[in-house]
């Protein structure tokens, strides 16, 4: 139907006849001459329709915004003074000979170039209109390039693309499962995969050696943060490898991707232990673009006459950390109040601070509600953080996890608010994660998943599980976890030990992962892998501000699709087929009767 996309038209086509198909982006009537800006996925170009092409003019005259047209005409240079160098097609226009209306369009629910004024709900409800915006097309095109590039790289490295089931058993990745009732097995359910974890391990047992898949994963998580109930992973697994092999190949993949798609040469990927990351940045995914670090001051605060500090400084699970911000003494009271409210979100009960106005004057040169308690240690404290005139020092004092979360988040917020970034891209690997974390009741749960290999023997693990390290690794970029994985347990005895430590008895283990435990007996090779979050990767590479911008048909924060109205009711017939009676509905029906 067409010879070119609108966005392909340029000076090289002058005097040629072209045919395009697309949507009316804008229509202007200039005293007898009609200008149509036509849009398709490649861009926008200007068409001119003269009244002497009678039929074409009549059609252009009745065309409205978002009508679908097919136009044939001659490319010509725009007259001097009317060129638009900001537009890729801005040097030319097309004098239309033929205008055909392929379809009409109702008035769109919002103007494409005015989308900022409409709520996201309206845009999601009419996503097919929203997706016409060049900005959205741009992001999804880049997404397509990214997945193509990743596939090409992995194929070239000998990884095989193998699909794993979507209707399956639960995979423990720490979230709630989406369940699908089985009609043929009344009362039984499939779970949608939280990841292909167990299947990719089984593919290694089968001998495929190198696997990848761009896989949909499903996690019914609480609706905080910028998450989606279904999201996409670049899932990778390989056999006969160690940490350095898999980290090496995937680092090359990401480096090549950034080079080819964004023309960005990523710097070195330093390796940092989980422990150092938590101590220095309060986070297991530190944003290394921000030159601020947490400094431990517990030892200095043990004897101060200020319970808020001395309490955590003396407690086993407490931490007192300082965060110095060079030049931060100019922060207003209002800004500090806002940061105090902000750290409260993470459980901090307050935010102590010291402004260093004139260090040479000793305590007189400081401004702070707490400095009066710190007479004896103030000089040591200022030395410890290397305080200079004009600095502000913030403090977190609480349970270590609260301090890390709150001051870690404050660090990131200050980095953004005060524009402290020292460079554009800061990748790193975080390694040496603990094997387990404890909840309040002292119960252990896996930091990654229960198939992650520990860096010690089963005996050592049993003797001191709380302090055992795992063979896990995360790739972090600009404070976002791009991907994570581990060397896996390939030995049945070790796998049983880990499950036992997690309080999963032999019977339960057999019932939940019997197939994996069985497979480990049949010649499982040493193996490991990782998975990258494709959506987050695309988000970083496109500069999008929410994950919804890089997914064609995303769900809302409450895990619903506004366009299709999913999830939705089903008929009584369908429920009967599935052998399901709804408690909630039954109640509603009863009250209606
Ligand atoms: N399955 C893990 C996840 O989804 C990634 C991995 O360990 O390969 O987080």
Automatic annotation (TrEMBL):
ATP binds at residues 219-221, 228, 481, 533-536. Its main location: cytoplasm. GO terms for biological process: aspartyl-tRNA aminoacylation. Residues 197-200 are annotated as: Aspartate. Keywords: Aminoacyl-tRNA synthetase, ATP-binding, Cytoplasm, Ligase, Nucleotide-binding, Protein biosynthesis. Gene3D superfamilies: Bira Bifunctional Protein, Domain 2, GAD-like domain, Nucleic acid-binding proteins. Homodimer. This is Aspartate--tRNA(Asp/Asn) ligase. The lineage of its organism: Bacteria, Pseudomonadati, Pseudomonadota, Gammaproteobacteria, Oceanospirillales. The gene is aspS.
């Amino acid at each position: 139907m067409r010879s070119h996309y609108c966005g392909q038209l340029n000076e090289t086509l002058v005097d040629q006849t072209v045919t395009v198909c697309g949507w009316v982006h804008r229509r202007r009537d200039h005293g007898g001459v009609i200008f149509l800006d036509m849009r398709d996925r490649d861009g926008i170009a200007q068409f001119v329709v003269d009244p002497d092409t009678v039929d074409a003019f009549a059609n252009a005259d009745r065309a409205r915004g978002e009508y679908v047209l097919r136009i044939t005409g001659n490319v010509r240079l725009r007259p001097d003074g009317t060129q638009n160098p900001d537009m890729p097609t801005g040097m030319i226009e097309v004098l239309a000979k033929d205008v055909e209306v392929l379809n009409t369009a109702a008035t769109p629910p919002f103007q494409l170039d005015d989308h900022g004024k409409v709520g996201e709900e309206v845009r999601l409800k009419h996503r097919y209109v929203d997706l016409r915006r060049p900005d959205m097309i741009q992001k999804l095109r880049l997404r397509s390039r990214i997945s193509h590039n990743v596939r090409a790289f992995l194929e070239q490295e000998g990884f095989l693309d193998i699909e794993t089931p979507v209707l399956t058993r639960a995979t423990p990745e720490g979230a709630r499962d989406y369940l699908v009732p089985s009609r043929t097995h009344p009362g039984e359910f499939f779970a949608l995969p939280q990841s292909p974890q167990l299947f990719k391990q089984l593919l290694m047992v089968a001998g495929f050696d190198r696997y990848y898949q761009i896989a949909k994963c499903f996690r019914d998580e609480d609706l905080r943060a910028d998450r989606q109930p279904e999201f996409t992973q670049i899932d990778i697994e390989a056999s006969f490898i160690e940490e350095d092999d898999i980290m090496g190949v995937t680092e090359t993949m990401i480096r090549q991707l950034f080079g080819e798609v964004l023309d960005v040469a990523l710097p070195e990927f330093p390796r940092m232990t989980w422990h150092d990351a938590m101590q220095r940045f309060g986070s297991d995914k530190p944003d290394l673009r921000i030159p601020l670090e947490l400094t431990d001051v517990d030892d200095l605060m043990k004897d101060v006459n200020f319970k808020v500090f001395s309490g955590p400084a003396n407690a086993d699970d407490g931490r007192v950390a300082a965060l110095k911000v060079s030049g931060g003494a100019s922060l207003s009271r209002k800004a500090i109040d806002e940061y105090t409210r902000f750290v409260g979100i993470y459980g901090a009960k307050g935010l102590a601070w010291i402004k260093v106005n004139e260090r040479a004057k000793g305590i007189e040169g400081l401004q702070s509600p707490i400095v009066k308690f710190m007479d004896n240690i103030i000089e040591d404290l200022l030395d410890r953080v290397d305080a200079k005139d004009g600095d502000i020092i913030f403090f977190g004092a609480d349970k270590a996890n609260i301090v890390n979360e709150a001051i870690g988040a404050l660090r990131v917020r200050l980095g953004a608010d005060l524009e402290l970034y020292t460079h554009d891209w800061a990748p790193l690997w975080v390694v040496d994660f603990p094997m387990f974390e404890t909840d309040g009741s002292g119960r252990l749960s896996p930091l990654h998943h229960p198939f992650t290999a520990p860096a010690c023997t089963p005996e050592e693990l049993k003797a001191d599980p709380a302090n055992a390290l795992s063979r896990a690794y995360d790739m972090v970029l600009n404070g976002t976890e791009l991907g994570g994985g581990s060397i896996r347990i390939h030995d049945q005895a070790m796998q049983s030990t880990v499950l036992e430590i997690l309080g999963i008895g032999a019977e339960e283990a057999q019932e939940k992962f019997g197939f994996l435990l069985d497979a480990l007996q049949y010649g499982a090779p040493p193996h490991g892998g990782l998975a990258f979050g494709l959506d987050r990767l695309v988000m970083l590479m496109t500069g999008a501000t929410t994950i919804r911008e890089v997914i064609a048909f995303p769900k809302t924060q409450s895990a619903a699709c506004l366009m299709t109205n999913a999830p939705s009711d089903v008929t009584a017939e369908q429920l009967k087929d599935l052998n399901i009676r709804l408690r909630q509905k039954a109640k509603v029906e009863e009250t209606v009767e």
